[in-house]
Design goal:
315 residues; four-stranded antiparallel sheet; 4 strands
C-alpha cells in the first residue's frame, strides 16, 4: 500500500509537465440603480441576466528545472519505498526461517529433557529397589532424587519458550496463535543449501535493498536541492481564456458574444526574509545527511556480508 501511494504520488507529479485546463459556467441576475451613469448592456437595461461560459488554460514552462527536479525527487522516493518493501519481505523471510529453526531446536531440547527425566526416573526406581534390598544406601537415593529434580526443573522453561516461539511463528505468518497448524519442524532435517551462490562482497552489497533504498534517498535529496534552487529563480506563467458573454442562455456562443485573452506573467522573488535562501541551504544539508546515511548503510552492509561469509566458512 505504501508503494501504491508513492507510485500514484509520482504520477500526480507528472501533471506539472502539462497545461492545466479548467472550464466554468457562471449565471447571474443583476440590477443597476436607476441613477447610474450608464447601464451595462447595450440595450440600456438596468435589470438583466448574464451567462458566461469560458475555458481557461494555464501553463508554466519548466525553464529552470523546477518541475523536472520535483518529479525526479518523487521518482527517487518511489524507488526508496520499493526497496523498503523488498527489504521488508527479505527480513520477514529471514525471521520466519530463524523462528522455525529456533522452534525445532526447542522441540529437540524438550524431547531430550523428557527422555532424561524418564531415564532418571527409571534409575531412581532401581536405586530405591536396591536400597530396599540393602544393596544401595540412602545417600545414593537422595543424590538421584536431586538429579531428577534438577532435570525436571529445566522442562517448564523450555515448554514456555516453545509455546512463545509457536506464537511468534504464527504472528510472522500473519495468523492467530490458535489457528497456526501444529506441524513440528525436525531439527535433524534442516540444513544449509549444498551449493551456495558465490559472488564478491561488493556484488552482495549492491544487491541489498537497504543499500539501494539509501541510494534512492540520497537521489531524492539531491533533486530537492534543485527544487530549492529553482524556487529562487524567476517563474513564468502563460494563460489563455476563451468564452462567451450573453444576456440570454439561447444567445451563448452566437456571433458577437465571444471573448478571448492571452497573457504571460513572470515573477521573480526579490525579498522573502531569507526564507528561500535558508530552504536551499537546508536542502543541501539534507543531501549531506542522506549521503552520510548512505555511506553508513554501505559500511554496515560490508560488515554484515563479511561476518556471514566468515560464519559460513567456519560452519
Amino acid at each position: 500500500a505504501a508503494l501504491a501511494v508513492a507510485r500514484e504520488t509520482t504520477r500526480a507529479g507528472w501533471g506539472t509537465y502539462y497545461p492545466s485546463v479548467a472550464a466554468g459556467f457562471s449565471a447571474s441576475r443583476q440590477q443597476d440603480p436607476p441613477g447610474a451613469l450608464a447601464p451595462v448592456p447595450s440595450n440600456n437595461a438596468f435589470l438583466y441576466n448574464l451567462f458566461t461560459p469560458q475555458v481557461s488554460v494555464s501553463y508554466v514552462p519548466d525553464v529552470f528545472g523546477l518541475n523536472r527536479r520535483g518529479v525526479e525527487s518523487l521518482q527517487a522516493q518511489e524507488q526508496a519505498v520499493r526497496f523498503q518493501a523488498i527489504a521488508a519481505r527479505v527480513t520477514l523471510t529471514a525471521n520466519v526461517v530463524v523462528a522455525a529453526i529456533q522452534q525445532a531446536a526447542l522441540q529437540a531440547q524438550v524431547d531430550a529433557t523428557r527422555r532424561m527425566i524418564d531415564a532418571n526416573t527409571r534409575m531412581l526406581g532401581i536405586l530405591r529397589y536396591q536400597a530396599a534390598k540393602g544393596y544401595a544406601g540412602r545417600l545414593d537415593v537422595a543424590a538421584q532424587e536431586s538429579q531428577l529434580a534438577q532435570v525436571a526443573a529445566t522442562l517448564p522453561p523450555l515448554i514456555k519458550q516453545l509455546a512463545q516461539q509457536h506464537d511468534l511463528l504464527a504472528a510472522l505468518a500473519g495468523q492467530f496463535p490458535s489457528r497456526l497448524p501444529d506441524g513440528k519442524f525436525d531439527l535433524a532435517s534442516l540444513q544449509l543449501p549444498q551449493d551456495l551462490p558465490l559472488s564478491l562482497p561488493s556484488q552482495l552489497v549492491v544487491q541489498r535493498p537497504d543499500v539501494r533504498q539509501a541510494q534512492a534517498n540520497m537521489h531524492a535529496a539531491s533533486a530537492q536541492v534543485g527544487v530549492a534552487t529553482a524556487n529562487r529563480l524567476p517563474n513564468i506563467t502563460c494563460t489563455a481564456n476563451v468564452g462567451s458573454n450573453a444576456l440570454a442562455i439561447g444567445q451563448v456562443f452566437k456571433a458577437g458574444t465571444g471573448f478571448w485573452s492571452l497573457g504571460a506573467d513572470i515573477a521573480a522573488p526579490i525579498f522573502q526574509g531569507g526564507t528561500l535562501l535558508h530552504q536551499q541551504r537546508a536542502a543541501k544539508a539534507a543531501y549531506v545527511q542522506a549521503a552520510a546515511q548512505y555511506r553508513s548503510t554501505v559500511l554496515t552492509a560490508f560488515q554484515n556480508v563479511a561476518d556471514t561469509l566468515a560464519a559460513l566458512e567456519q560452519d
